[in-house]
Amino acid sequence: MSKVSIIGAYNTKFGAHVDVKDMISFKKKTDTLSFYDMIIEAGRGAIADSGLSAKDIDGVWIASCSPSRFVNQEHVAPLGVEIDPALRFKPMTRTEAACASSSVAIYDGMYAIESGRFKNVLVIGVEKMNLLDTPAMTQALATCSYWPEEGGKGMTFPGLFAELAKAYLAQYKYSESEFRAQLAHVAALCYRNASKNPLAHVQNGPQTAEAILALPDSGRGSNMMIAAPLRLHDCSLVTDGAAAVVLSTTEFAKASRKKVVEIAGIGHSAEHLPLSKRPNKHVLEAGKNAVGKAFAEAKIGAGDIDIAEVHDCFTINQLLCTEALGLSQDGRAGLDYVAGRFGADDDKVCVNLSGGLKAKGHPVGATGASMHALVYKQLMGEPIGQAPTKKTPEIGVTFNVGGSAVTNCVSVLRRVK
Questions:
Q1: Please, are residues 142 and 157 in contact by the beta-carbon 8 Å criterion?
Q2: 254-291, pLDDT tens digit by residue?
Q3: Which tens digits make up the pLDDT trace of 322-370?
Q4: Is 23's pLDDT higher than 60?
Q5: In CATH, what number does 4-134+239-244 get?
Q6: How far, in Å, CA of 245 to CA of 262, rounded?
Q7: Is 99 a catalytic residue?
Q8: 80-to-26, 102, 229, 242, 363 alpha-carbon distances in Å
Q9: What residues does each domain of the chain span?
Q10: The model's pTM
Q11: Which end of the chain is more exposed for a tag (fewer CB within 10 A), N or C?
Q12: Catalytic residue among 99, 144, 190, 313
């Protein structure tokens, strides 16, 4: 079985790519960077970065969570043809796995190469979310929950992750103020990292936990409660964007370039979709299962990781991902963030150097591809934004989840040349 490497990557600017005409209702919006344009930009960028021509691509995967609701477009895979005329007649497939859609697409592309049928694959993740108003956007995302018990009953994703936060609090018995400080340190780290990332959605967020904790509870500029105990600065953004990678065999990569980053191991594990069926909500059990698979295939342990991009759709999930990866003991990740760990100057492992979903942004279908693209760039010595200051990274991990940590995708990327 051929090993697979990333040989090219591209990430569009993340942000709210709309021009709002009505500042009262926020309903009159003009598209400034369309769903279609983002696919073309990301696809062309990744192919150019790979050094290949479009004619060398054997197949295309396009991942998108809910384009039918966000932009009234289904059957999105053939849009890959518009990237380059040479892609006409190539096989193209769309994947959907909520916020993990493009990690799953990368895995499908890997399987195609490993089968020997394809040599080079283009994978794109894309989402255009900001054309909808807030209620419509919230309902679109709610369809990624278990509708009969959750979305259909008015439960939102802040509410679902708040349930994980409540379970975490009950398990480890932190006071409300202790826990709030832990989450504020997570958010502040992501804001600091995003301020160095020219592609990030937010580049001027509050840089310290103290600044976040000092914000008022209500009114303009507040850190209002969204779903207790999660507040505004605990939540990721509604973002538009796309990212893409080109995959090939490691054999080809080593023969054709000076630096090579291999996908050394992957883990893909599914959890119960209904939150009500999970026995332990204070821990990502399926996430730990995916970590175990990826680490075993790559033959690494937590201590080998130099950088990690984890799925901080909400700050509680950054704590849970950090613990699932073994970077902190269960129940102690928040204390480690408060102690100043995981920043760019950490001599062991740096987390979310991109700014994470919290500040880089979270265009749901693009998130997994973006994680892979930016870790790849770090390992190639071409960081986009903040880089580790005390080491040259050789091993990076992506931890991408779909839904309320239902689809769990963990990838180990290793520089092998």
A1: yes
A2: 999 999 999 999 999 999 999 999 999 999 999 999 99
A3: 999 999 999 999 999 999 999 999 999 999 999 999 999 999 999 999 9
A4: no
A5: 3.40.47.10
A6: 12
A7: yes
A8: 31, 15, 42, 13, 19
A9: 4-134+239-244
A10: 0.97
A11: N
A12: 99
